[in-house]
Amino acid sequence: MKEKRYANLAMVYAILAMAGGVFYREFTKFNGFQGRTALGTAHTHYFLLGMVFFLLLLLLEKNLAFFGRNTGKVLIFYQVGLNLTALMLFCRGIVQVRGIDLSAALEGALSGMAGIGHILLGVSLVLLLLQIKKSCTR
């Protein structure tokens, strides 16, 4: 059952990644923007930290059966962190493409929210890796 959930999540994140890539390409083209923007990294975050991550979890669960009583909670925090990070990348990218000058407070809020997303990702990833390591020693 968990394997099917991981496969479904991988599919969802693959679709989000592709939609993010199309948005990046079309939004920058529509606005005549040339150059680098945070929008260009949002879809790679979804591909690697979403689709590839859950495909790897699927394989690990099939081989190690690492799922424990806290795994579901850790994965919820992971997904919140991933989606918050991606959302902030989209916000930052839109601001960059449109050339919007943000106040220091808004700039700090955007960076702070992105930081919280990265912290949630990092902490939940470490917790998950510890759980996988523990299942290897059984």
Helix content: over 70%
- First-last Cα distance: 22 Å
Number of strands: 0
Number of helices: 4
Q: What is the arithmetic mean of pLDDT?
A: 93
Q: Which structural category fits the helices and strands?
A: mainly alpha
Shape: elongated
Percent of residues in β-strands = under 5%
Order of helices and strands: HHHH
**Poorly predicted segments:** none
Tell me about the largest β-sheet. none
Alpha carbon gyration radius: 17 Å
Question: Can you tell me about this structure?
Answer:
The protein has 138 residues and is mostly helical. The chain has helices spanning 2-30, 39-64, 71-98, 104-136. α2 runs antiparallel to α3. The longest helix has 33 residues, at 104-136. The chain is elongated and about 55 Å long. It starts with a helix and ends with a helix. The mean pLDDT is 93.
In brief:
The protein has 4 helices and no strands. The protein is an all-alpha fold. The chain is elongated, with a radius of gyration of 17 Å.
SSE topology:
Blueprint: H1 2-30, H2 39-64, H3 71-98, H4 104-136
List keywords for this structure.
138 residues, mainly alpha, 4 helices, elongated
